[in-house]
Amino acid sequence: MSNEDEFYDAVTGLDSDESCEGVSEASFKDALVFDSSSQKKNGSVPQENGIKKHRTSLPAPMFSRNTISVWSILKKCIGLELSKITMPIVFNEPLSFLQRITEYMEHTYLINRACSLSDSIERMQVREHNEAFTWSNPYCCVHNVILGKLWIEQYGTVEIVNHSTGDKCVLNFKPCGMFGKELHKVEGYIQDKSKKKLCIIYGKWTECMWSVDPQAYEAHKKSEKKGDNKKHKNEETEGAENDDADDMPEIQETVSVVPGSTLLWRIDSRPAHSATMYNFTNFAMTLNELEPGMEAILPSTDCRFRPDIKAMENGNMDEASQEKERLEEKQRAARKERAKNNDEWSTRWFQMDTNPYTGSQDWIYSGGYFNRNYQDLPDIY
């Protein structure tokens, strides 16, 4: 696997005023008022915890994957049971699966801002408050797993429901399409419980999201169809053509902002050294950071104590590989022992139960974690 075989997250126009094309000065000022704190986060400025700054890099750069062939490894696994295969650590990054899910919380500053808003519609633009929300996720397609440049595509419909008010946000993550014209685009709306559309939301999930009045949005769309933006659309088509439909499409110019729009969110730029550190964001860099004294208040099962991840972060790949194999064998042995004794594995802080808002089976927090009473924990490391 070559260096070019890393996942490619397109970042377009993030440090340029071009990403605000078409927006009026007044609406841009409105956007800055709504999203001013995120501007401080742009660039390589580390995220803060209110008191001290977190680390902005890993202890060591990532290993070279130039000599690794994905296909040569996968073809040896044909016909084998995946649960009994120890995959090479070169496919990993120094994060656990739980930490990857934790990256949902990268934009917690939006949650804090939502809690200060009085209007439930404004709160749904950032998806949180002291109310009950549920949401679905888009599909994620990984292209060129075996050969070529890896790139990901998000597509499908996402619904965010406020079960306290009946408000709903529907977002359509558009598929790339043959010529890549819709790559990364998101378009949707917020409606109240009577299904009246209150605002339109649009943008790119790799760049920024905007909100605008439905009438203004429709008027803008009609003017585009009449040819007001014909030159822009022609350039977009020309730049999107690609001989191989599965290659990473050409990145289109940045989001064309409808006059009167309000900026909801803009992506933070990645650190300058991100390419040599698994393409991590500033947030991902901090997930395995252990500050003095934290060991005393964390459970022994916390993934920040995983020895294979710690070795990988430190650049010791031989040790990381050995630890990974040891942990997997330990898990298999523990599972075998439970089966022998007819013991069922039970989770400690979450239980499968009926979600009171959706009526479906879900993992419900059962409490106790933040009491810091971590006794009788299994020895998993």
Quick synopsis:
By secondary structure, this protein is an alpha+beta fold. It is 26% helix and 16% strand.
Polypeptide structure, described:
- With 381 residues, the protein is an alpha+beta fold.
- It contains ten helices and ten strands.
- It has helices spanning 25-41, 70-74, 97-102, 108-115, 120-124, 214-225, 230-240, 282-286, 307-313, 317-340; strands at 133-135, 139-143, 151-162, 168-173, 185-191, 197-204, 208-212, 262-266, 350-354, 361-365.
- A hairpin with a 5-residue loop joins strand 3 and strand 4 (168-173).
- Helix 9 packs antiparallel against helix 10.
Provide the descriptors you would attach to this structure in a database record.
381 residues; alpha+beta; eight-stranded antiparallel sheet; two-stranded antiparallel ribbon; 10 helices; disordered N terminus
